[in-house]
Amino acid sequence: MASASLFILFILQACACLFFYTVGAQANIKVSAIFSFGDSILDTGMNNNLPSGRCNYPPYGRDFPGKVATGRFCNGKIPTDLIAEALGIKDNLLTGVGFASSGSGIDPLTSSTLGVVAMSQQLQYFKDYIGKLKGVAGEEKAEAIIANSLVLMSAGNNDIGVSYTAGSRKLQYTFPAYVIQQSQLYALGARRFGVLSTVALGCEPSGRVAGSCSMTANVGAQTYNNLLKAGIATLQSKHSDAKLVFFDIFTPLDNIASNPHQFGFQNANLGCCGGVGSCLPFTTLVCPDASTYVFWDSLHPTEKTYRIVVSDVLNKTLSSFS
Asked: Where are the domains of the chain?
């Protein structure tokens, strides 16, 4: 992907002078950069040059700074942006590199069926990035940047929501592969991991049943999340020099989608754009105010929802990185 390579080189110019940010009020945490891997929850535009699975067109980005459709599956900012804000990283140039792809699965097979960047390819991009970073900043400083960065990972939403739920592949296959990816990132020098659970898959507009969250889909998601949490604990026990923290985004999103009015929302059954279908390029089927909707499209929350979810998660987990 030519654009991805250019983006990485652009970021490298900033990495030579990266400095540490401190989260003062919440914990004494120093973060050199943020790297994101996984699926559309964290995708900041990795998919823009793919033939499918992209969203770099209006009305996506309608409420993003500059009203630009950057490739984020949202009306505005996504968890990657909001976590960077919470860490005090105000300059987007210094937030790190986003390798996350719209539907990235934890194995190449998902990539071939969904037309996205598989996790294995994302890892290769990260390896290439580290090599270039060492050339710009020097080996010692590059290793420090990677070790003091925060790696965000989100996977399982497509593998569980599509592959597992549809029965084409089993949970037992996909979950160990995800743990292997974390181990590979550790081997590359990463030491801080924020690992996102799946979203509340049964509460998405496309998955609801008669206006209510699908219990079947949510039980499948929670089964995966429980195994993921246990797997993270196992990895943590093997790597005492690392911090692997489970980010539970399922619970707050389930609470919001099940009780929208308590959180100031008017609609949780439909996506602001497209309702229960796709948010098509330049469509006029879009609500006037996304802040009244829990979901932006049939699968992804609005920025307002993400802000509530991210705040909940960070309030419970940031101290774990100190």
From this structure: 2-321
Cβ count near 311 (within 10 Å): 13
User: DSSP secondary-structure letter at 40?
Assistant: T
Contacts of 183 (CB under 8 A, 6+ apart): 235
Give tens-digit pLDDT for 25-35: 345 677 888 99
CA gap 121, 114 in Å, rounded: 14
As annotated, the active-site residues are 40, 297, 300
Residues in the chain: 322
CATH of 2-321, one of 3.30.160.20, 3.40.50.1110, 3.55.50.30, 3.40.50.200: 3.40.50.1110
Residue with tokens 């602001």: 272
User: Residue 297 in contact with residue 271, Cβ under 8 Å?
Assistant: yes
Distance CA 219, CA 280 (A): 30
Query: Could you report the per-residue pLDDT of 215-250, keeping only the tens digit for each?
Result: 988 988 898 899 889 989 988 999 999 999 999 999
